[in-house]
Design a protein that fits this description.
0% of the residues lie in helices and 44% in strands. It is mainly β. The strands form three sheets. A six-stranded antiparallel β-sheet has the order 6-3-2-1-7-8, with no helix packed on it.
Amino acid sequence: MAAKIRKGDKVVVLTGRDKGRTGEVFQVMRDESRALVRGVNIVKRHQRQTPTQDGGIISKEAPIHLSNLAIADPRDGKPTRIGFKILPEGKKVRVAKRSGAEIDG
């Protein structure tokens, strides 16, 4: 099945403690159905000191399930579902169901 959420997409969180926040996807874990979104689902981790990096408490993004994310509509930034359309030249593009705007291409 074609990928509906990809690296570089602007997404909106639909549920959870970060509901309503937006961010950019910087990694997608297809086999786990999860994604890492910049600035969303921040957790604190205790990290041991190594020769290359300092120890201490660091903040980083935790994976969030793809079902809790929706693409932000390119026109107004609100959450939208995704459809697919094949252009006359044969290219397949993602389309926002909310406004009909093309998401890539």
